[in-house]
Amino acid sequence: MNNCVIECRNLETAYTASLHRPILNGISCQIKQGEFVVLLGLNGAGKSTLLRSLVGLVPLAKGEIHINGISVTPRTLPQIRRDVSMLFQGGGLIRQLSAVDNVLCGRLGMRTTWQTLFGFPKRDRHLAMDLLAQLGLKEQADQKTSQLSGGQQQRVAIARALIQSPQILLADEPITGLDVVACQQVMETLSELHTQQGMTIVTVLHDLGIAAKYGQRAIVLDAGRIVYDGLCENLQAQFAKC
């Protein structure tokens, strides 16, 4: 049985004049179920573009993406996004909503427009509260997210992603701008999702030390191409400038 959940074949984006090349320039890789993969590289290497392309947020000029055996197309995106959650840099939260209401926003894609007029059922609210409690945010559930620290906001964003019950979690620079303690809290949360729930995680990072500590496999990009795909061990020695 093929346990590959993400397969990219010769991905290429449109030519970018400022770079004198496509941002993605012939990317091919496979990610297996339950892997913790870190995308690394200098600014402009194509890390975030590759991550976003997996859920249809970046148009491709060439190539194919398959997730759980399904080709990523505009028609299949709603189905694919039920299995894949995206964690954006900075969290992407609605600052004037409470933490629990932000988490509940993760259920909107599973409800019809008509259903949303009546609010969320109690079971959804209970699930949102349980997720916040698991992430150490029970006391902050009713606070506006604008009042929370950066690390707390990012954990709210993780809870919002998890309420979708995804098989795959994509995280775009989830620790950028956070202090050392908050970075550790966020990375420990992702690590626990991987080790305890077997979730497939793909995250963009800049710090080689953090990648080596938490990641299982590294894919290093340079100028839109993969220059390394392997274990996270010895990354600092091999790519000290990433």
- Average predicted local confidence, pLDDT: 89
N-to-C SSE series? EEEEEHEEHEHHHHEHEHEEH
Total helical elements? 9
What is the top-level CATH class of the largest domain? Alpha Beta
Identify the CATH homologous superfamily of the largest domain. Answer: P-loop containing nucleotide triphosphate hydrolases
The total of beta strands comes to 12
Radius of gyration: 18 Å
Shape: globular
Q: Decide which structural class fits the backbone.
A: alpha/beta
Strand order of the largest sheet: 8-9-10-5-11-12
Terminal CA distance: 36 Å
- Number of separate domains: 2
Helix content: 25-40%
CATH architecture of the largest domain: 3-Layer(aba) Sandwich
Stretches with pLDDT under 50, minimum 5 residues: 111-115
Largest sheet: 6 strands, mixed
